[in-house]
Specification:
Bound molecules: pyridoxal-5'-phosphate
Number of helices: 12
Shape: globular
Number of domains: 2
Structural class: alpha/beta
Radius of gyration: 20 Å
Strand order of the largest sheet: 1-7-6-5-4-2-3
Helix content: 40-55%
Order of helices and strands: HHEHEHEHEHEHEEHHHEEHEEH
CATH superfamily of the largest domain: Type I PLP-dependent aspartate aminotransferase-like (Major domain)
Number of strands: 11
CATH architecture of the largest domain: 3-Layer(aba) Sandwich
Length: 339
């Protein structure tokens, strides 16, 4: 339960679509993923010239860093955020400025205060991975007013499907600021992590620039038909959201009983917070020994956090069993009643 994937598997409609198109893989697809872009356009109510697709959000993050910044530019974000952003910033040798979080949430005020003449891009993940926390509409709108128009804001909404029931959650697509790019992925709620589809939505001029560097024929033809089918599979999406809620509620109930701290989440995972890095490493290793794979998020900058995503009923109960055993063993070993 380490990669925030969909425990229900892929959308069945997507699997059917792939099977149906298997015999056509000798053909090139449309270089700009025309059909997929149109399907997304219909789904989200934006013009097709405001949309570009890629092989997952990761691919688009790379394009954004390379297209909209150059050597010496500062790219601003929060600490304790998505590792994929940090990786891409480092890959291109840009200066990464990471602002300290406040109670495991983005401190948007502090991020705005840290804008300098060198700032080119601000990256925000909402909900944030690995904390699962969000910033609300009011906080986001106040922040938007403080950011000069020449600075690009990248709003990564990989987990928006899970957050949308919260009326305080700002849906990035409702904002038409010229310097804003929204990122969405089919890897999480739509269950297509392995086939790699993501898309970016923004002002036509920004999207045009991304098309200049996008690889042609990306995403591949099977990924495109799978994504088109998955976008139309509301039944699967509803089941996904329902199971996620059930699994996370069950985990929270047990964590409360076991005195394991966790953060409030608006995504498909929980971040457990432990007292020390040493304890966290032991906890993660002991779970691993018992067959439970979780994510110690030290690489994201939170050394005392372990992330667990929602699972099927069976996976959730398995995780609870292992975590209960490990908590007991470590409480004895560390001779402390950590809360
Ligand atoms: C915030 C965030 N953005 C993007 C991604 C990557 O998504 P993709 O599979 O589309 O590259 C993830 C995956 O974990 C994520 O947590």
């Amino acid at each position: 339960l380490a990669s925030n994937e969909n425990p229900l598997g892929p959308s069945p409609k997507a699997v059917e679509a792939i099977k149906k198109h298997l015999a056509e893989i000798h053909r090139y697809t449309n270089p700009a993923a025309f059909d997929l872009v149109n399907a997304i356009s219909k789904k989200i109510g934006k013009d097709s010239n405001q949309i570009v697709t890629g092989s997952g959000t990761d691919s688009l993050l790379q394009y954004i860093v390379s297209a909209f910044s150059e050597e010496g530019d500062e790219l601003l974000t929060s600490e304790g955020s998505f590792i994929g952003w940090y990786v891409n910033v480092n890959k291109y040798g840009r200066i990464s400025k990471q602002i300290v979080q406040k109670d495991y949430r983005y401190d948007l005020e502090a991020i705005a205060e840290n804008i300098t003449d060198k700032t080119k891009i601000i990256y925000l993940a909402n909900p944030n991975n690995p904390t699962g926390t969000i910033f609300n509409k009011k906080e986001f709108e106040t922040f938007l007013l403080k950011v000069p128009e020449h600075i690009l804001i990248v709003l990564d909404e990989a987990y928006s499907v899970y957050a949308q029931t919260n009326t305080e959650y700002p849906n990035g697509l409702d904002y038409s600021n010229k310097n804003l790019i929204i990122l969405r992925t089919l890897s999480k709620a739509y269950g297509l992590a392995g086939i790699r589809v993501g898309f970016a939505v923004g002002n036509e001029e920004l999207i045009k620039i991304l098309y200049k560097i996008k690889l042609p024929f990306e995403p591949n033809s099977l990924a495109q038909v799978a994504a088109i089918a998955a976008l139309d599979d509301d039944n699967f999406l509803n089941k996904t959201v329902e199971l996620n809620k059930k699994s996370l509620n069950r985990l929270k109930e047990i964590f409360d009983e076991l005195n394991i701290n966790y953060l409030p989440t608006s995504a498909n995972f929980l971040l457990m917070i432990f007292p020390t890095e040493k304890y966290t490493t032991s906890f993660n290793n002991e779970c691993l020994k018992r067959g439970l794979i979780l994510r110690h998020v030290n690489t994201f900058g939170i050394t005392n956090g372990i992330r667990i995503n929602s699972g099927t009923n069976e996976e959730t109960e398995f995780a609870i069993n292992v975590i209960t055993q490990v908590k007991k063993i470590l409480t004895k070993e560390y001779n402390l009643q950590y809360t």
